[in-house]
Specification:
The structure holds two protein chains of two kinds. Chain A is mainly α. Chain A has one domain (25-142). Chain A is built from five helices and no strands. Chain B starts with a helix and ends in a 5-residue tail after the last helix. Chain B has one domain. In chain B, α1 packs antiparallel against α2 (24-50) and α2 packs antiparallel against α3. Chain B contains three helices and no strands. Chain B is rod-shaped. Classes of the chains: A mainly alpha, B mainly alpha.
């Protein structure tokens, strides 16, 4: 009876302690600071775009290179994040941000108004805030 | 026709609440304001469309971006849920540690 109890208890504890479903990557300061820098870059770009919308300086052709730059930065962060096991959520969040950069580029190519930029800014702000929030939660968990 | 932001917000919140169950209370303070903001952006898009400032294609593109953003919120909610669950698992393992270690005769946990 006692042996059986031992075996049951050990099995239960082993399943709890080794449950891979609950695994999430450790905090990576490079991903955290990279996400914050990227957020600032996008914010500066959207501010410039809002200020110059409807003028030659705000034309898509004059700004097309920025989209490639942003995608490059996201890819660098993505590679960094994907090197850690259990970082699928962070990697997917970066993919969602990249997807929105693609969509913004398509909208910009057709012409974008300050009111639309305002909506887009809210969306990017939320995406980056959520990404940083997740990284900070990992940090809190470890402290 | 205008969008009922409160109703959409509540539906989104209920949807998330149902999916995360009891962990909701821990992450509610983070998720609710974000979902409220997203519901507001839906209304903004609808108003631009209603006033003729954007066409249906553009409205669709903006809603697609909104949908990606909602997914971003849910990814973080999921991550916070996993971290919360992990804390519970660690606490359970820690609590059981003393008993189990005594049973097996060495420091297993």
């Amino acid at each position: 009876m006692r042996k059986r109890l031992k075996a049951t208890l050990l099995a239960a504890v082993a399943s709890i302690a080794g449950c891979s479903t609950y695994f999430i990557a450790t905090y990576n300061p490079a991903v955290d600071s990279g996400a914050t820098e990227l957020q600032q870059k996008v914010d500066v770009f959207l501010n410039d775009l809002e200020r110059t919308a409807g003028t030659p300086a705000g034309a898509y052709e004059r700004n097309a290179g920025t989209y490639d730059e942003l995608r490059g930065d996201i890819q660098t962060l993505r590679e960094l994040a994907s090197q850690q096991r259990g970082n699928d959520l962070t990697v997917h969040s970066l993919d969602l941000i990249e997807n929105n950069v693609d969509k913004l580029q398509a909208i910009h190519a057709d012409g974008i108004s300050p009111k639309e930029i305002d909506i887009v800014r809210t969306l990017f702000d939320t995406q980056f805030r959520m990404l940083v929030q997740l990284e900070n939660a990992k940090k809190r968990k470890e402290s | 026709m205008s969008i009922d932001v409160t109703s959409i917000t509540n539906k989104m919140i209920t949807g998330v609440r149902d999916s995360v169950g009891e962990r909701w209370s821990v992450i509610r303070a983070i998720a609710e304001p974000e979902l409220r903001k997203l519901a507001q952006t839906l209304e903004d898009v609808q108003q631009l469309y209603a006033s003729g400032e954007i066409d249906a294609t553009r409205a669709f593109q903006l809603v697609e971006m909104q949908r990606n953003t909602a997914m971003s919120v849910l990814r973080t909610v999921e991550g916070l849920g996993v971290l919360t669950a992990r804390e519970a698992v660690d606490a359970a393992a820690h609590a059981a540690g003393a008993v189990v270690n005594r049973l097996v005769g060495f420091k297993l946990i």
